[in-house]
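Design review, sub-item: ligand-bound model
Attendees: FS, YL, KQ
YL presented the inputs for the EPS complex:
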Amino acid sequence: MKLTTAGESHGKGLFAILEGFPAGLKLDLTRIDGELARRRGGHGRGARQNIECDRVEFLSGVRDLVTLGSPLALTVKNRDYENWKGCMAPEGCDASARPLTAVRPGHADLAGTEKYELKDARNILERASARETAVRVAAGTVCRLLLEKLNIFVAGYVRSVGSVCDEKEYTYAQILSQRGKDLCMADAEKELEAIELIDRARAAGDTLGGVAELRVIGLKSGFGSCMTYEEKLDARLCAALMSVQAIKGVEVGLGFSAAGRFGSEVHDEIFAENGKRIRKTNRAGGIEGGMSNGEELVLHAAMKPIPTLMKGLRTVDIVTGEPVIAAAERSDVCAIAACETVLESVLCTALAQVVLERLGGDTVAQLAARYEAL
Ligand code: EPS
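KQ shared the predicted structure:
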């Protein structure tokens, strides 16, 4: 299975082709639009989200809400296009109308203009924008619906926003039932603290990042491989998470903190109980030797603060060569809650890929039977 996305932030919309997806999956549009709504939300989001009202539309690969086995084409339209078509329309426009030359440190602007030999970062930022994640959430939710047919479930929550960090441990059920509405944090008091911090950042014209925790239940052992480096499950999933805009760090299980401990404090001992092998800890985060080990998957992803700061950072104008303050029209102050939804979605896509690679199946029923038989 392969997912390709296209689309510019202020173009007509975002588009995706999902090929190699099995036939026979009943789609739930409310579920997909629900995830799109979750992606638009979260305290700290910017004015763009008031303009958009993201809805998925399937253009092919589906009849009467059931997948056909042919490539799925889906789109999430940009309502803001109406305000931008004068400089974005593919069929003709004034492409020089909204230049960005005061390149933003931390954004794709500078490296992109150098790479494509441009004197305006518009073509770069339009594609680099996290708006692209809208269609990745739509496609990822299609993959989530497939995984759920196998009883594999994915959830997550926000563990930290800037310096406000929740150190507690939660069960999968707690994550689902406690997930806050404003920031997707599991601890209500921490969420209030984080909201205050975001408000302070907004007042100062600044931005904030955060950390999300992702969990997967129901994945049987043996997915991924220890045989080739490309097939290692941790490498596959971390690459997927790292592909999300602004993600700068990913961890499996204890991750970085494992490096500072003794081996006896890191590895999950194996016990025999009632003729079964069990673990009493899951510091490995459900992956050993590049393969799922049957335990819950636990991953973390760290998002850097969004690089468009209303107060502006010092930069150099790429046309005049003069020192200036970086461009800022509007921006999110903090998008970690939205990012958490995106991370869950890309994880669903990557897991569906791994499962389909191992088990194949032209139809969902064939795939489900093969999974059940493991
Ligand atoms: C985003 C839409 C964008 C930004 C943000 C994410 O809208 P606009 O650029 O029109 O304000 O809010 O994009 C970025 C963080 C970025 O760096 O470009 C969205 O829908 O998620």
